[in-house]
Design goal:
Blueprint: E1 9-12, H1 18-23, E2 36-37, H2 46-65, H3 71-80, H4 99-108, H5 114-127, E3 135-137, H6 140-148, E4 155-158, E5 178-182, H7 185-193, E6 201-203, H8 219-232, H9 237-250, E7 262-266, H10 274-283, H11 285-289, E8 294-300, H12 303-315, E9 324-328, H13 332-343, E10 348-351, E11 366-368, H14 374-385, E12 389-391, H15 398-407, H16 410-421, H17 426-437
Parallel strand pairs: 1-2, 1-3, 3-4, 4-5, 5-6, 7-8, 7-10, 8-9, 10-11, 11-12
Length: 439
């Protein structure tokens, strides 16, 4: 990546993949392209790290425990009440802080995060002694830390869900100087209900990776979508009905796709739902062996997920198949780089409705596995609203319903809905706003 003059300090947290994946496309704004982990930076205070680690381990444990029959759902339901998103209508004042927000600020009073902000003040001064670099984070708690401990520059927070709970707005939202970049209209409206000043809310769209978009002309995105549509509409049923729409946005399609039909199954950061992925592979085993479909199993940076996949593929006789690939990396940046590269030749993305829901804007139809948490329920509804996602059928019979759906051209329809209706240029809009506001 070509190093430019730094425009912001970019801060995330390594709790699951969501907040780090959101920060990764924005790394070009940061000094030396480096994103800072609020909970794992070099020299972090032991007391601060302990608080972060307790929170992360609890979330990962409860996400996995959810799979335990009966009691798992009950325990997760109790936890989910603390992150529950209230009904949007009727519109009303929701600015009163809830228990979760109060607890964060109670911990800030004990100087949680002060060390981080002091270090970032020094880093900003080293790179921009005249005017402080903006503080850009993908997690609400680090935004609260910046404001509470008086970070001198602008403070921005990137929202990474289609709807959000009260915990995303600070203790006193009416007087807060935190500014928000929102992925959709609902989160903008929700922040207003939470008391955030309208002038501090920007509708930008989610920051998708530039390597999957290209410039603002979207030349890479369009090229990839052209090849994808050929695989998603094998009988040309969708194209026969909507050829004029396709040509309006993409022009004429190539004669054949650059890659075989490819399904990617993405596992979340806690490693949940890996069993579903293997059920899918088992159902598709014959088609995989015949070369009719390629499967990418995303293990991320979790070696136990990679090892689980290897064991199950060996049992299924597919360990050495060129039609099944495990996407794994030891480092998070390496994983995101590989993931984005593989997305370019992915035709269908199967995932729980996490931040990856917004990747439908790349023209990716999404098969939605069960959600984990209140915010993912709303991400699922957002996908269904845009007709770019489909709730998974029975994984044991994927071989049947997936190809029925494919042959009717319905995945092609979903791909075009995602491309046309979802915001694609968030990364460029965020950079422009930060640059303009810091001149």
């Amino acid at each position: 990546m070509e190093q430019k003059k730094p425009k912001a300090l970019v801060v995330d947290v390594n709790m699951g993949y969501g907040h780090q994946r959101t920060a990764y496309p924005l790394r070009g704004l940061a000094p030396k392209g480096r994103v800072i982990n609020a909970n794992a930076y070099e020299g972090i205070e032991p007391a601060d790290k302990k608080i972060w680690e307790t929170t992360r381990k609890f979330y990962e444990a409860i996400s996995n425990f959810k799979r335990v029959p009966l009691i798992g759902d009950f325990c997760f339901g109790v936890f989910n009440q603390f992150q529950k998103i209230l009904e949007f209508y009727p519109k009303r004042d929701l600015s009163k802080p809830n228990f979760s927000v109060k607890q964060i600020y109670k911990t800030l009073k004990k100087n949680w995060g002060k060390h981080l902000i002091e270090k970032l003040k020094d880093l900003s001064e080293a790179y921009s002694p005249v005017k402080p670099l903006p503080f850009l984070t993908t997690f609400f708690t680090s935004a609260y830390m910046a404001e509470y401990f008086n970070y001198p520059g602008e403070i921005y927070c990137v929202v990474c869900d289609a709807d959000i709970a009260r915990i995303w707005a600070p203790l006193h939202p009416h007087i807060s100087r935190i500014k928000y970049f929102c992925p959709n209209h609902r989160t903008c409206a929700r922040l207003e209900l939470y008391g955030v000043k309208k002038e501090n809310i920007f509708l930008t769209g989610y920051p998708l990776p530039s390597e999957n978009i290209g410039t603002e002309e979207m030349e890479i995105l369009k090229k990839d979508l052209e090849n994808r549509l050929l695989n998603l509409d094998p009988k040309r049923l969708y194209f026969s009905r909507y050829s004029s729409l396709v040509r309006k946005y993409l022009g004429y399609l190539p004669s054949q796709s650059s890659h075989p039909l490819t399904l990617m199954f993405a596992i979340g950061g806690a490693g949940a739902q890996k069993e579903i992925a293997i059920k899918v592979v088992k159902s598709l085993r014959r088609r995989i062996s015949r070369g009719e479909i390629k499967i990418i199993l995303v293990a991320g940076i979790k070696d136990f997920v990679r090892d689980y996949f290897l064991e199950k593929l060996k049992f299924l006789g597919l360990k050495n198949s060129k039609q099944v690939e495990i996407l794994y990396a030891e480092k998070i940046d390496e994983y995101f780089k590989k993931f984005n590269q593989h997305l370019r030749t992915t035709d269908i993305l199967w995932t729980k409705p996490s931040e990856l829901s917004f990747y439908t804007a790349l023209g990716l139809p999404i098969i939605i596995s069960p959600s984990i948490g209140s915010q993912e329920n709303f991400n699922r509804e957002w996908l269904l609203y845009h007709h770019s996602g489909k709730i998974q059928g029975n994984p044991d019979f994927t071989d049947e319903w997936l190809f029925d759906f494919l042959e009717r051209g319905e995945f092609a329809d979903m791909a075009m809905h995602g491309f046309i209706e979802a915001e694609k240029l968030g990364i460029f809009k965020i950079e422009k706003i930060i640059t303009q506001n810091n001149e």
